[in-house]
C-alpha cells in the first residue's frame, strides 16, 4: 500500500466549520475502500481566545494556544498541518517558525483566483479578514479589482449561524443578497473567505462563481498527503 503523509488539522474555529472541512476532504477523494482515504489527525479546540476580539479589542492572543495545538498534532504523528479558518491565518502569519510544514489556505485560494485571470472579485469574510487585507493586497498586486463586503452586521449573523448551526434559512437569504450586491457591482466571482459560509450556502447554490477557501484547501491537502516519501 502506498505510504502517504498524515494530515494534521488545527481546528475548532469553529467546530461546525472543522466538521464540514473534513467532509470536503473526504469528498475530494475518489475512494473505493476505507484505506483509500488519508490518515487525518484533528485537533479541534474551540476554547482558545477569540480571534476577532484579540484583533478588535486587543484581548488575549490566540497564538500561544495555536502553537500548543500544532505541537499536539506533531506529537500525534502529523507530517504537516492545515487550519480551516481564514481569520486564524492572520495570527498564524505572525509566527516565525512552525514545528510542522504548513499549507496556507489563503495563499492557495489566491493562487487559483490569479491563475483564472479573474477581473473583479467580491470578498465575503469576517471583519478581521477584510480589515487586515488578508486577500485584498495580493489581488490588487495582480490587477484584480476587489469589492469588500460592507454589511458587517449581516456577515456577523451569517458566521454565527454557521458556528451554531442555527437560523440557516435566514442566513442563506442574507448571503444570497450579499452575493447579488457583488453581481450588481460587476464582480465575476466571490471568495468564500470564511469556512462557515459553505455551511450556509453550498457553492453549487450560488448564482456567482465561488472560490471557496475550504474546498480549495481540502483538495490541496489531500493532494499533498498523497505524495510518496522519498
| Number of H- or I-type helical stretches | 11
Low-confidence stretches: none
What structural category characterises the helix and strand content?
Answer: alpha/beta
Physical arrangement of strands within the biggest beta sheet? 5-4-6-7
* Domain module tally: 2
Q: What CATH first level of the largest domain would be assigned?
A: Alpha Beta
Main beta-sheet annotation: 4 strands, parallel
Determine the fraction of residues in helical runs and give it as a percent range.
Answer: 40-55%
The residue-averaged pLDDT reads 94
User: How many strand units?
Assistant: 7
Strand content: 5-15%
- Provide the CATH architecture of the largest domain: 3-Layer(aba) Sandwich
User: SSE order, as H and E?
Assistant: EHEHHEHHEHHEHHEHEH
What Rg, in angstroms, do the CA atoms define?
A: 17 Å
Q: Based on CA inertia axes, which overall geometry fits?
A: globular
Gap from first CA to last CA: 15 Å
Per the CATH scheme, the topology name of the largest domain is: Rossmann fold
Could you describe the 3D structure shown?
- This protein is of the alpha/beta class.
- It folds into 2 domains: 7-104 and 216-225, Rossmann fold; 106-213, Rossmann fold.
- The protein contains 11 helices and 7 strands.
- The protein has helices at 15-27, 51-57, 63-76, 86-92, 105-115, 127-131, 136-141, 152-164, 168-184, 197-200, 213-225, and strands spanning 7-11, 40-44, 80-82, 120-125, 145-148, 189-193, 209-212.
- The strands form 2 sheets. The chain has a 4-stranded parallel sheet with strand order 5-4-6-7, with helices on both faces. A 3-stranded parallel sheet has the order 2-1-3, with helices on both faces.
- β6 (189-193), α10 and β7 form a beta-alpha-beta unit.
- α1 packs across α11.
- The radius of gyration is 17 Å and the shape is globular.
- 40% of the residues are buried.
- The model has no long low-confidence stretch (mean pLDDT 94).
